[in-house]
Specification:
Layout (H helix, E strand, L loop, with lengths): L8 E4 L7 H12 L5 E5 L10 E4 L5 H4 L4 E5 L16 H16 L5 E4 L4 H8 L6 H9 L5 E6 L2 E5 L9 H4 L2 H14 L9 E5 L14 H14 L4 E6 L7 H4 L4 E4 L2 H12 L4 E5 L5 E4 L16 H19 L1
Helix pairs in contact: 3-4
């Protein structure tokens, strides 16, 4: 008896005025039928550098992937204008994401990979009120808490706080929030084949507070929380000075790092693997990945888009979804 065919990955179109359509074609040119995925978007928006095949259902993707990019049509009200978002298209961008989630939840797609959106364009065009993809997907997945992980071959990082001003971080960062981030991160590492992860935890302040001389969050909140979670069997390192956490010898001591704010986490991962970084949303009832870059309006339509991060995101989506299926 032959093995069951793996489900394809759903790839939402992202912002048409950005490099999303170019990335979809470049990824199919690289992957072909070796990793079947289908793009949810408007066929007229594709640059036409490779053939595409319209499909009616995700189950067709694997059969047609050798002939062209499988496209599950999401109608848009107008043409693509590279570099210039069209407000009238915002609702269709959102609908592409919603459709990808629905297909994952119904078991018709293995995972969702999302191409970059413009939050400003969506807010102006259809009143999109979410800070970003991550929060919108949590809403669609009906889960109260999700975690954003950025991963490249050299490093996996989780920011405890994400899209807020730096001055707001100390007020937003409390023991309940940090504990939720740590628990979700710990449990999700099983999907990466790590049942007992070693988690490095950064301090909030320079030198992790230096014994209270540069801040007391480490003494009063972070260290006591880590000690309590260690009694449950979690392997936690820290709180550590963030400036010495990311060199090669330090990274060898842990599997994933939890940082206190956006740039503390994203600067090292983007420095180490800018073209290979993948955004993974932990805690959803389905697998979601995304390239770790934006819409790149400045190069849209010029044939300059680098598909490396999207390729990495598609491959990670396939690996993680296979782990979920085995589990």
């Amino acid at each position: 008896m032959s093995a069951a065919r793996a489900l394809p990955i759903a790839l939402s179109c992202g912002e048409p005025a950005g490099i999303g359509p170019e990335l979809a074609e470049a990824c199919w040119a690289e992957l072909g039928a070796s990793l079947p995925f289908f793009w949810i978007g408007e066929p007229r928006h594709l640059p036409g550098t490779v053939p595409h095949v319209r499909i009616e259902h995700p189950s067709e993707a694997a059969d047609v992937a050798a002939r062209g990019l499988p496209v599950l049509t999401q109608e848009f009200p107008g043409p693509r204008v590279p570099g210039v978002p069209q407000p009238a298209q915002a609702a269709s961008v959102v609908a592409s994401i919603e459709r990808g989630v629905q297909l994952c939840q119904s078991g018709e797609a293995a995972a969702l990979c999302t191409l970059p959106i413009s939050k400003q364009a969506l807010a102006e065009g259809c009143g999109f009120a979410f800070p970003g993809h991550t929060e919108f997907l949590a809403h669609l997945g009906n889960v109260p808490e999700v975690v954003m992980m950025l991963a490249c071959p050299q490093l996996k990082v989780v920011p405890a706080t994400i899209h807020i001003a730096l001055e707001d971080v100390p007020q937003a960062l409390d023991a309940a929030l940090l504990e939720a981030r740590l628990r979700i991160t710990h449990d999700a590492m099983a999907g990466f084949g790590i049942a007992h992860p070693r988690i490095a935890v950064a301090g909030l302040n320079p030198h992790a507070g230096e014994g209270g001389r540069m801040g007391r969050q480490e003494i009063e909140m972070i260290a006591p929380l880590l000690e309590r979670l260690r009694t449950e069997g979690m392997e936690l390192l820290g709180p550590l000075p963030a400036d010495t956490m990311f060199h090669a010898a330090a990274r060898a001591r842990y599997d994933v790092a939890v940082c206190m704010y956006h740039d503390q986490a994203l600067i090292p991962v983007k420095t180490l693997g800018f073209d290979e970084g993948v955004n993974v949303t932990l805690g959803l009832p389905f697998v979601r990945t995304s390239p770790d870059h934006g819409t790149a309006f400045d190069i849209a339509g010029k044939g300059l888009a680098n598909p490396s991060s999207t390729l990495a995101a598609l491959r990670m989506a396939a690996e993680l979804s296979a782990g979920v299926a085995r589990g």
